[in-house]
Design goal:
CATH topology of the domain at 121-254: Rossmann fold
CATH architecture of the domain at 121-254: 3-Layer(aba) Sandwich
Number of helices: 31
Largest sheet: 6 strands, mixed
Distance between the termini: 27 Å
Structural class: alpha+beta
Number of strands: 14
Amino acid sequence: MQDKEFRFEDWELCPGRRVLARAGQPVALEPRVFDLLAWLVRHHDRVVTKEELLDEVWPDEPVSVGVIARAVMKARRALGDDDRDGRLVRTVPRVGYRFVAPVSVVPTAMPGRRAQTATPSVALLPFENRTGRPEFDWVELGLLTLTVKALAGDPRLVVAPVSSVLMALNALPAGADGPARAQALRPMLAVQRVVQGIVLAEGVDFALDVTVHGEDSSRRHRLQGADLPSLGRATADLLEHLLLDQRARSLPAAYPVADPFASRALMRGLQMAAEQRWREAANLFRVVLDAEPQAREIELEYLRALAPMGDERALAVGDRLLADALAAADFARAAEIRQALGRTWLNKGLLEPAREQLDAAIRLTAEAEPSESQTLTLLLRSTLAIRQRDFDLARQLLLQARQCSERHGNLHQGLWAEVSLASVRARTGDLEGGYEAIRLAARQSDGDRLRRDLASTIDLEGRMALQLGRLDEAGECAASALRSADEMNALGVLSSAAETLCLLGRLTGEPARGAQAIAALARRGLSGQPGAEASANMARAHQAWAEGRLPEAMLTMAEAVSRHERAGAWLHAHDTAPWLAALYMDAGEHAAAAETLTRIVSFPAAHQDAELQSALTWLRARRAAAEGSSDTALALLRDAAESAPASVWRALVMADLAQALFEGRQFALAAGVLQRLGAWAEALPPCRGLAAELGVETHPRLR
């Protein structure tokens, strides 16, 4: 869980997060250049030979020693190291290089970990149901959440969020007992004590055994009563007394619900919410509100459950709660409600109202102490910025969110920030680095409890794997994300994973890949979800295209692109519009293709998007070839093959280049291009045939 951060001059280098920053501002580096710089800085106490750099930075790659000099030049340029003798990186003639600037090494913690302080701090493990009655399984996270919320009502205490505990538990060996888990979790969560709770049946009543594990000792306490929610509140009172070492006031009930049936529904709803099973949670909170219509805290939980689904009901609930909060001048509550409303609009795919609500939430808490709620607002606003391709703003918000999550020790929010930063890296030229960061994040979020986070992360991993040509991995990730999203009714992830599967199936000539995805979409109603519907339309269009139903594909894809344009979702518009132009070309609709190309060129930041420029060059080459200008097409493809970043578009450029070279009887060059295509050479049907003609052995698909 530990990493090292290296500091020199006003620079910070964190290899684990693959971040190079100057005065807090990240600086982009190519993946191999970053790896070289990190290796030199890590071994700043000695000269690093060229042979060592080749082995460590370019393992198993047939490259010449000249790549080292080019990478060093790029690293020096990024660092402003233009001193003739090398202010930071010095050349040792005929030997290698040495990083010569003074370097300080600072240990850093896993994402979201809070530095331990003297403030009393505690983490509660999921309660164990040993009553022998499965109907009380909700005590595990439901009663736990109730207890944590009651305990967190005392500002003198620090309580680890439930989501952070669940994430940390994923990293522990299976079968670890209470003391072993506590010993491992205390440093991971930076808390002084870990609490284990066991619920037992005692006749018609209940007992709650509470064991508090400290650094050197464990103490067990038993609480008894006829009502489990009351036992949860009593546990919070007990822990407050133990942690503060003084007579503590009785904490107020986090959710004052009198009706016993509603109280049980509340506990089950809190369990579902802790597991991110938002639909079940919302239904249970609705049951509670039917019995306790004035319970504003429950109504806020109901809103929080509706928002991640983009559920239309959240808007009316949020507007009502917001009016009450503003009337009472409760601006902290108003900020939470605006955050939930912004999240609702964001998950509906309507970005402008989402921006208005999230920006208003940020303004309401601008002068307040940072909180977990504010961090969530920053994360949501950064998601919106990414969708609008405002990567500078997204990075700024994410660095702020990461700092806040570290301050509060929220591993879940810290991981969210890392995933989003990885997405920004991938979109701004470091696809390989972003992909590796996403794979790490997927392992950290892997577990049964945070399934929505895991599904979303795996979906993103699959999309990046596809761009890198790791095709079987892309299919496996998308299929896994599809299954999880279908179970949870997570429509945004569902439609995104379906789009990946259908695109992959069309490109590889295996439309059966998309059949399951189309069936899953057919089972779900996406009305009122413009963002999910746009991705679903892309999935349907790719599937129809693969099956030769071009008129249907054109209509469906055109609607998807228009949805992204209307919403201002330029990230997705850049990704999808070139497919529409290519589809028009396949259908012989050349005027429509030309019009679409004109639209794409006018997209915001189109000239800054290297992937989009690769797609446009590929489309122009196809148009030139269709018009009989084979020389022009070949020149365009050659240029694009050299400049295009790793992506599906680069693979298509090189596939067409290999075909053009073959048709021009430049067989050796065509074979060389196929070799450079890697797994794509076996995946793309035209390339498979071409490779067979040329006798080229293609790379295996599984990467």
